[in-house]
Write a sequence for this structure.
């Protein structure tokens, strides 16, 4: 379908109120899942982020890299193991996690953003002790629970006009590295930044009343309503920890959080710059 120049101009003018709304505001994007391993989608996500940056949005990209970690582990004849959805991380595995997340994945994303015309700098949670952590569960090994966020390195980069790209590896005061759940890290980082919005990119449309029916998407819920959806069994399985992270972010000061399908092309722009938005919007309860 071809659009006339007039139609293109109409689209841009309709986006104007949203451009004004988010100009100068901090938006944290948690990036992972199929949007990360699909090369075409990856290119589109980077384009969306650079476009937001060019119109004055202060974007912070927090990324995972689970599939890449598992791929390297398999190549090294080390079988990935999980407990309650979290990767069992022994000493050898944390070295692999650090190599893949802080190295290959992080620098690939930084390079892509630069190639699209942005200015980006990569950080791990160990840089500037950004993510301080402790052991979450002895059974999981070097899987970390966030104890403190030292947000100044991120603020410094935003003030200098860069897009911070953060890999979710934490550390403790003894120098041990920890594998941090990406959603959890994004919640704490966005809270420390008092972000306008946290966008959680997932592999489903959002919170569904019927998990098998994408048309049953719930477009908006408050924190209290979200908690009641647990009791009704609507939020279940792998969605429980993700929604918990969203609630945690709001309780730490994020204005609102969106869970959306990162497999949809340009879903970030649809969420921030259109009336319809994308996914499920979770916000605090009205006072």
């Amino acid at each position: 379908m071809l659009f006339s120049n007039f139609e293109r101009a109409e689209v841009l003018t309709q986006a104007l109120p949203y451009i004004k709304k988010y100009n100068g505001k901090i938006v944290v994007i948690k990036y992972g899942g199929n949007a990360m391993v699909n090369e075409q989608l990856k290119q589109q996500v980077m384009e969306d982020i650079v476009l937001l940056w060019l119109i004055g949005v202060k974007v912070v990209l927090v990324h995972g890299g689970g599939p890449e970690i598992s791929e390297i582990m398999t190549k090294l004849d080390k079988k990935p193991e999980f407990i309650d959805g979290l990767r069992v991380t022994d000493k050898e595995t944390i070295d692999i996690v650090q190599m893949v997340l802080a190295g290959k994945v992080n620098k690939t994303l930084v390079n892509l953003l630069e190639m699209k015309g942005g200015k980006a700098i990569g950080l791990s949670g160990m840089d500037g002790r950004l993510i301080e952590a402790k052991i979450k569960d002895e059974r999981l090994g070097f899987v970390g629970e966030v104890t403190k966020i030292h947000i100044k390195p991120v603020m410094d980069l935003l003030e200098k006009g860069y897009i911070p790209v953060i890999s979710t590896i934490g550390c403790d005061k003894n120098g041990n590295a920890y594998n941090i759940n990406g959603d959890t890290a994004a919640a704490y980082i966005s809270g420390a930044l008092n972000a306008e919005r946290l966008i959680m990119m997932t592999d489903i449309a959002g919170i569904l009343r019927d998990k098998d029916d994408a048309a049953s998407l719930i477009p908006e819920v408050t924190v209290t309503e979200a908690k009641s959806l647990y009791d009704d069994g609507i939020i279940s399985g792998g969605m429980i920890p993700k929604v918990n992270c969203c609630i945690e972010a709001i309780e730490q000061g994020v204005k609102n959080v969106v869970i959306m399908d990162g497999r949809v092309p340009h879903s970030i722009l649809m969420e921030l710059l259109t009336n319809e938005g994308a996914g499920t919007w979770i916000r605090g309860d009205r006072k």
Summary: The radius of gyration is 19 Å. The mean pLDDT is 87.
